[in-house]
Every structure is written in C-alpha cells, then in structure tokens.
Amino acid sequence: PLKKEIFAYWENRVEGILCISAPEPGYEILAPKVMYRFFSGLECSMMGSNLQFLDVTHLDVSKTTIFSGCFQEFGKDGKVALIGIDSWNVGSGMDFSNFFYKAFPHNAEINLNLSTWYFWKDGRVLLNGFFDTFAKSAQTVNLNVDWQLNGCAELGYMFADFAASAVDVKIIGIENWNVQQVEYFWGMFDHFSPNSNFRLNLSNWSEEAPLLANHENFTHKTFFKIKEPKWAN
User: Fold this and answer.
1) Three-state SS letters, 126-192
2) How does pLDDT run across 25-53, given as a tens digit for each residue?
3) What distance in Å separates the CA atoms of residue 107 and residue 123, rounded to the nearest whole number?
4) What would the pLDDT profile of 45-94 be if each residue is shown by its tens digit?
5) Which of 172, 207, 69 has its CA nearest to residue 126?
6) Left if phi > 0, otherwise alpha if psi is -120 to 50, otherwise beta: which for 27?
7) What does the alpha-carbon distance between residue 76 and residue 105 come to, in Å, rounded to a whole number?
8) Residue 177: which residues within 8 A CB-CB, separation 6 or more?
C-alpha cells in the first residue's frame, strides 16, 4: 500500500509510472483528511529512482484539510512529472504550508496549471512557503496560479528562493489576487528567481486600499523584479 490510509494504486516499473487509482485506472480513491508530507520521499519508498510519472488524477482530496508538506522534496532522487493535480478539489483545505517546499530539484522544465483550484472561504488558509525553494535547478518554470483568495490567508515566504537557476520564468494570475484579508506577507519573494528576467507588477493588490499586513522583507534581494503594492504606514 502507498500509505496506511490508501490501499490502491497501480504501477508500471518499466515506464516509471505510479498511478493512484483502483482497481483499474479511472477509479476514484478517497484521500485521508491529513496529507502531511504525504508524497515526500515517495520515490525511495515505492519505486526507487525509477519513478518518472506520478498520476494523482483519481485521488479525491475533497475532504482533506491538511496539505502541509504534501509534496515536500518531491523528486529529490531524479526528474519526475506530476500529472492530474490540476483536477484536485482543495476547497476543504486549510493548511498548505510548504506544499512544494524544495520540490522538483532536478527537473529542467516545470509546467504547473493550478488555476482550477478554489480555496476555503470561511476561515484562514495557510499558504506559507508553498513554493519555497521550488525547482532550484530548472531553467524554465511556468505556473498558473489564477486563484480567488477571498478569505483570510498567510503568504509568508511563499515564493522565497523560488527557481534559483531559471532564466525563463512565467507566473500567471498572481497579480489579480484579492489580498485585502491577507495577514502575513513576510519574506514572500525573498531571493525570488535571481537569474530570470521575469517582472511582476503587484500594484493591483492595493488598488482599493493600502495593505496593512506584516510585509517585512517582502522582496528582499529581489532588485527591480517586483513592483510592490502600496503599504499602509
């Protein structure tokens, strides 16, 4: 079994594929409420260094509340592709801290479209460190995070040390986030993508009113890459 809470998956060791479904591809599997570091170190415990594709399309996470560290250090043993995460219903999730911390360290190119994700609106959502130290060796990183953040949130160190080697970086949707209820921005873009020419204009964040939240080291050592929102004194 993959974990003690999930007893169904199929694998193709020749092609390096691990698919969360049962008894055949296409069946939904209910994920546990807590997925703390769930796929962290998966390669070692399941297929060794041969894992090239992880398909989570049929993993039903609609009841999961804790996703912290879910893919922490994912791919640490070699290049690996993640399939189907765009289909996840994360609406019950409250804690996504360090979700992709140090993930995909060996991939040359990363393409992730998470624009279909909708977050819990009735309480605080923790996104601290979500992409911290993400894709440290990649040359190309494309993200779509066109999210509706309508409730309270924490975004500390969310993109800290992001894509340290990448030359080609593109992030879609973040400039339109509604962050009026965000409580922490500290270090959000600390050492963000130092080798890319990516520019991000976040002035829309404070179009209605200056932001009050803690934003210490918001863009530390991110010279001219990000146009910051207006902060309240």
Assistant:
1) ECCCCCCCCCCCCCEEEEECCCCCCCCEECCCCCCCCCCCCCEEEEECHHHCCCCCEEECCCCCCCC
2) 678 888 999 999 999 866 445 656 678 89
3) 35
4) 565 667 889 999 999 999 999 999 999 999 988 899 999 999 999 999 99
5) 69
6) beta
7) 6
8) 147, 149, 205
